[in-house]
Structures are given as structure tokens and as C-alpha cells.
Amino acid sequence: MNLADTLNLGCLCRTLNPEHLRAQLETDRSLAGLTQQLATSHPHLFSQTSVFLDATTRNKLARTVAAIERVIALPAYQAHTLAQAPAIARHGFGPAGVFMGYDFHMADDGPRLIEINTNAGGALLNAALARAHRVCCAAMTGLFDAATDVLGLDEVFVAMFRDEWLAQRGDAPLQTLLIVDDEPAAQYLAPEFTLARLLLRRHGITAEVADPRELQWRDGRLWHPALPAGLPVDMVYNRLTDFDLSLPGHGALRTAYESGAVVLTPHPRAHALFADKRNLITLGDDARLARWAVADDDRRLLQAAIPATRQVTPENAEALWAQRRHLFFKPAAGFGSRAAYRGDKLTRRVWGDITAGGYVAQDLVPPSERLVEVNGEARRLKLDVRAYAYRGTVQLLAARTWSGQTTNFRTPGGGFSPVVVLPALAAAESDTAPALAAH
Fold it and tell me: Of 246, 241, 178, nearest to 214 (Cα)?
């Protein structure tokens, strides 16, 4: 084990002070009481411990993200992927998609990519959490990696939204932005919508949280009654899991997006290119990547990082059932561990659903573990690491700790955890990482 693994399995340190978290979350008078509200309604959202990562692993993870983005930018990759995507995904207006999430398990031989998500939730909450933990450990600042400036992340996130606007609208002024999800107040991460709204307002953008059914399409523009009279919707921060905008209640947003009347981020094209689980088959197909002239270094990174993935078909169903104890099954368009199953937990009834179509089988990569204290007892929880990224650059690393078959926020002692990279190990490392966002 490296030092990071040793600390994860041996350190019971609790570095989260509720008052420090309150100071980071309740940055506006309207947010007063949010920390206590979350402690009651989301008791397992935030872990009280950090997760440790060595610099070699961090660098491989960052280089893998950059390599994936280079492959996805290839015309051959896009043509191959969009051929199996909904027609709406073929619109290319310029934006890349905010808050891309790359989820990794930490294997003995390096980080292994489990999935990619568009509109990955939790970035603003994790930024606040990282700052709160950092305050607690101010005396240890010299031992923390400085590649990510957690104090400057708000500016990084706002700059990302402005970059998305610039990619489609150029120098036109960005005035209004809606944060959109179905029944937003009922969503588990609804507090993050409020944080995003206030952050954007502090930077001069009129922002509101909205349900897509409240949107109105008229006179070639998208409108919402919460915005000032006469101001249409310029931009939508899309938190919907209707990735192709096909549900009836999303018709106004779909029309505005397809006509180019609104800047939507992330959008159906981003989901098709990045988050469809079938893309892992393509990204792990070394022979295909070689035909597309992908650089040798990038191919080596992807071969090391992406577990073997294949589509479940009637032809291979019997063989996959026999190998199921070593596989994880996911719906191609799934998200948030919904309808995802470890092969060793499968029943014949569930297997019937999987073989009916739309699933991929991925080689099982067991997650590493973090030792935490729960009610005076030491417990081992599983962990994964999410890289929030934009255009191939990692902005923030965050971990999730849990117990059970799939990632969840129901585990005592678990939840979001800040990632502490141990830079002392970087001196012995030959590889250099792409710069993480540090604005």
C-alpha cells in the first residue's frame, strides 16, 4: 500500500467542523439555517472525514480525463457515436457542457474509470465542503496538494458558464440564466440549485430555479415568469435526466434548444458523446482507437483506466450469465446507480430485464475503502472519486463513501468527502499531470 491507502485504512481523523461548514454554505442571509436543515433532511450527505489520494494516482486520473476528451473530439469518434444517438444529439452549437463528472474506483494498479456523467451533481456542495475541511486543518496546509485552489473555485465555475455562453453567442451580453430540473424543490440536491443561483447573481447574472413545465416558447424565444418583464431566457443550466428532452413537459425547452434560441448546458449532444455507457466499449477498443490514429500514450492510458465493457445481447447472454460474479451491469442511458446491478447479486427475474436490451456489462472493479468512525466504532466504507471537469481540465476532486451494492447517501458515516492529495509523493514521480484548474 502507498501512504494514501495506509491513511485511508488507518486514520480515523474527523476534520469537519459544523461551524466551518456553516460559514462556507450560508454565504447569504437567505441561506441562514441551511446547514442545520441539511443535517436533518440529508444526515448522510457530508462525511466528517477526508479521503487521501497519492499524487501519482491523481496525475494518472487527470491525464486519463484529458485523453478521453481528445478522443471524443475526433470526427471519427463523433460520427460513430452520434450514429446510434437520438437525432437531437446531432446539433452542435458550440458549448461543451458544464460539470462533467468522471467517476473512478482506485484499484491497486491505478484509477479505473467506472462511468462518465453529464450534469454531475454536487460540485458546489463539494467545493464548500473542501473549504470547511481545509479550515479545520490549517496547521497541516503544507502537507496538502496545492494543484486545486479551493478558495478560487467559485470564480472557476462562473468562468465556465461564461465560456459556454461565449462558445455559442460570442460577445453578446449574458443577462439571464435558469437552473432547470423537474420539481426542483423536491430534488435531493435542491440546496445546490440555490447555491448556484446565488453564485451567479453575485457575478451579475439574473438567475432563477425553474421547472421546465413553467417555460413558455413564443415569438422565437424562451420565457419564464420569474424573470424580469421583457427579458427572455438566455441560458439554461440543465439538471434534467431526460437526456434527449423527449418528455412532453420538456417541449418548450426542446424547441428552444433545437432552434438555437437558448444556450443549453449540458445538452443532448454532450450526453450522447460522453455519458452513454456504450461509449465505454468504444473508448476501451484499442484496435478501433489505433485505426483512428489515437496517440499511443492516450491509448495506453485508456487501456489501463477503462475496465473491459461489452453490450449485453442475446448472443452473449449465456456467457455473461456464467461470468456474472465478475461483472457489473448498467443500463446504457442510466444514471445515479439506477437499475445497476452487481453480477453476484443478480436474480433470474432481474436478468430477464437485463437481457431484454439496453444494458452493458463491465468488468467488476471493487472500490477501495475508507475507515470511518460511526458511534464510536470503526467501520470500513467503500469509496469512489469523482473528477469534476470542463473541456478536459479537472476542476475539483471529490469522494463519496458508502456501504451497499451501489453508491448512495444513506450510509451512516458516509457521504461526500474532500480529497486530500499527498504532494510529498510527487517528488518521486516521473509523470507530470495536466494542470488542474487553479484560477
Answer: 178
